[in-house]
Amino acid sequence: MSSKSERNDRKSGKKPVFGNRSSGPREKGQKPVAQGFSGREEAARPPRSPDRGKSDADNFLWGRHPVLAALANPARRGMGRLLATAERAAEIENNAFANGHKIEVVEVQALTRMLPPGAVHQGLAFKVQPLEGVSLEELADPAEGVIVMLDQLTDPQNVGAIFRSALAFGARGIIVQDRHAPALAGALAKAAVGATERLPHARVTNLSRALERLADLGWRAVGLDGTGEQTLEEALDRQPTVLVMGSEGDGIRRLVAEHCDVLAKIPMPGGFESLNVSNAAAVALYEATRAQRG
Questions:
Q1: Last residue of a domain, one of 127, 155, 174
Q2: Radius of gyration, alpha carbons of the chain
Q3: Per-position pLDDT tens, the chain of length 294
Q4: Percentages helix, strand, coil for the chain, rounded to the nearest 5?
Q5: Labelling 239: which of 38, 58, 86, 111 has CA 20 to 30 A away?
Q6: 147, 243 contact by CB (below 8 A)
Q7: 277-293 and 156-168 are packed helices; what angle lies between their axes, rounded to 10 degrees?
Q8: Residue 263: strand pairing partners
Q9: How far is CA 2 from the centre of its chain?
């Protein structure tokens, strides 16, 4: 299979929180340093067998919604290997979902053996190259709406869930750092329920420089951080907004936080200092889209 990526033209730390906990006094004039999310550590993954490693998982989509979304994506036309059980193959043929792809009918046990342990494939798998994405300028110009930036989020379930929420709330797209982001396939695509095929994403080398470029294009960056001096509601307005999310362990890195216009927290009056990053993203997206409507 060619190593060329496909293009999607559709457009340890501490236990910081989104609550009101202080991280200690800061010297006057010192810029805030972002803290991460409190709560669960990213879930440990079971070991994979040598013949079903990460490289294979990165080249597979599985499950009904992710595969059907990929088949409907024009960027996938003529690409990949479509595998289906007899029942799923009949569904695809009867509903004209294949879009020119040839279906290979396989037994369910054979399909299970092709995929990583625990993959819930629902009788469908699609072996393809990861989508390349779009450029930062294509994603951000013209400046309007909401974009989500992910700073070193590596858990596929969390990233997939954020894609799903971003699509649901009408975000323009997702920005990730190319060296510290999982491939938009496998468990991530399964968690996204097809959103990775429908929502544009941009991979950039340096998030700080990307924020500088976004500022030039008219975007305002709001970083989510438990020690932020403003609440999310106070920080958001009708301006084009980049929501910057950090990992659950370390949060937004210092240089990325310094390029944010404001650091904001999600108030937690219940007193429970724990919120999963994908849940926090959903809350932030809801508030940001509400602010955009005025």
A1: 127
A2: 20
A3: 434 444 444 443 333 334 443 333 334 344 444 444 333 333 444 433 334 444 466 789 999 999 999 999 998 887 899 999 999 999 999 999 999 999 999 999 999 999 999 999 999 999 998 888 999 999 999 999 999 999 999 999 999 999 999 999 999 999 999 887 889 999 999 999 999 999 999 999 999 999 999 999 999 999 999 888 899 999 999 999 999 999 877 899 999 999 999 999 998 887 666 689 999 999 999 999 999 987
A4: 35, 15, 50
A5: 38
A6: yes
A7: 20
A8: 223
A9: 25
Q: Quick check: is 4 in a domain?
A: no
CA 108 – CA 159 distance, rounded (Å): 28
| Residue 218 covered by a domain | yes
Query: What are the tokens at 189?
Result: 């695509």
In this structure, is residue 7 part of a structural domain?
no
Contact 103, 82 (CB under 8 A): yes
Report the chain's terminal Cα–Cα distance, integer Å.
49
Residue 149's domain spans which residues?
136-293
Instruction: Tell me: do 166 and 240 sit in the same domain.
Output: yes
